[in-house]
Amino acid sequence: MKISQKLISGILGIATLSVIIGAINAHQQLKIAKYIAQQEAEEVAGLLGYFVSHELEYHEIGSRDKMLAELQEHVTSLHKKR
Known about the structure:
The protein is mainly α. The chain has helices at residues 3-58, 64-81.
C-alpha cells in the first residue's frame, strides 16, 4: 500500500469518526434541550395554576380581562427573570 493511500484512508477514517461524534453530540444536545423545555413548561404551568387558584380563592375578580392581564404580567416577569 502506498503512502498516499495510507494518508487518504487515515484522513477518511478521522473524518468519519468526527461525523459520528458530531452526530452523537447533536443528538445529546437535542435531548437536553427537550428536557429543559419540558421542565420549564411544567414549572410555568404549576405557577399559573397557583396564581389562578390564588386569584379565585383570595380575591374578588372584577373581570376576566383583569385577571388574565395579571396572569400575563406574572408570566412575563418569569420569562424576564430567566
